[in-house]
Structure to design on (334 residues):
């Protein structure tokens, strides 16, 4: 009998990391996760989630190398919270993962973003499209992927890049819905529309993205040393499309849809690093930047896809803003 494969997840309490961990577990993988405070991380994920928590820091290469011993896959989902200190953290954390992959022979699974592309890149960006970032975070993202590609070509370090748009979904790290909704008294009072209603925007529902990652990991042996796939997810008319779904799910057809208060945020941003970094990325809402999943569909046969209103309902339910009591089963699998 073939023993189960083992994955080390770095950033398992975040959006991509948590959903990928759960999807891997459902597909029979043994999941190990790195955390500075394993007890707190285990409580956050749910005590019944079968994850082997290991104490360590993604900034410390030695602890990552030790945690990855015997792993077949390293999910590099580490990300500084609130956009804070990208310059000082993302490159060292990836360097730690690369060191661990060299030592263990594991493939790296790297969640990528659309930050790498210029505003005029279009709505159907393929994996070989030129990467011409216009922001600091975009340039860091391009550098990170260059590090992965160089390691694959020079050292044989295998990498799987899975690129997607803005995350939303239940559980930790469902960032888009957090800042796109205005909430008071445990209810959604309005939804922001950051860009023009005619401009499309790419959203990735985290359970679908995690399932996609797990399916690709199951077929790792069929991939080249450096493999990249694009995940289309939900292509919607800016925040208007998401806002209309929120209206339907809440049964509030007149729920206000408000323009994003960019001018106010600019006044506050000098005193708030997260807001400064958010402003830098608003260009993504002003031009259609979407991903072509043809290569992914050709390889897997389909892209996992949850209907929009079902996905929005699950997200709002987890946020505790539905009229009925929230179910909150996401992090407590049977």
């Amino acid at each position: 009998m073939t023993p189960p494969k083992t994955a080390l997840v770095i950033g398992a309490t975040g959006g991509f990391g948590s959903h990928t961990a759960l999807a891997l577990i459902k597909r029979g993988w043994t999941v190990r996760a790195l955390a500075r405070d394993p007890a707190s991380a285990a409580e956050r994920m749910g005590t019944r989630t079968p994850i082997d928590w290991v104490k360590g820091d993604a900034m410390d290469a030695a602890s990552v190398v030790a945690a990855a011993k015997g792993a077949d896959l390293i999910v590099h989902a580490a990300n500084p919270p609130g956009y804070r200190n990208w310059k000082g953290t993302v490159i060292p954390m990836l360097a730690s993962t690369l060191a661990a992959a060299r030592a263990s022979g594991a493939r790296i699974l790297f969640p990528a973003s659309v930050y790498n592309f210029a505003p005029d890149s279009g709505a159907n960006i393929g994996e070989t499209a030129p990467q011409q970032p216009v922001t600091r975070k975009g340039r860091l993202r391009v550098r990170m992927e260059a590090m992965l590609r160089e390691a694959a070509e020079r050292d044989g370090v295998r990498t799987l890049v899975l690129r997607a748009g803005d995350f939303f979904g239940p559980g930790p790290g469902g960032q888009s819905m957090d800042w796109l909704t205005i909430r008071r008294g445990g209810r959604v009072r309005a939804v922001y529309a950051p860009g023009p209603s005619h401009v499309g925007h790419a959203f990735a529902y985290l359970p679908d993205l995690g399932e996609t990652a797990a399916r690709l990991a199951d077929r790792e042996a069929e991939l080249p040393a450096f493999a990249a796939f694009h995940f289309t997810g939900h292509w919607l008319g800016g925040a208007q499309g998401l806002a209309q779904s929120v209206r339907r799910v809440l049964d509030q057809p007149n729920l206000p849809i408000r323009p994003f208060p960019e001018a106010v945020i600019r006044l506050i941003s000098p005193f708030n690093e997260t807001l400064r970094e958010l402003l830098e990325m608003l260009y993504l809402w002003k031009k259609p930047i979407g991903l072509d999943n043809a290569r992914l569909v050709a390889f897997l046969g389909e892209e996992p896809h949850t209907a929009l209103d079902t996905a929005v309902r699950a997200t709002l339910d987890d946020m505790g803003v539905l009229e009925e009591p929230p179910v909150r089963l996401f992090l407590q699998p049977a």
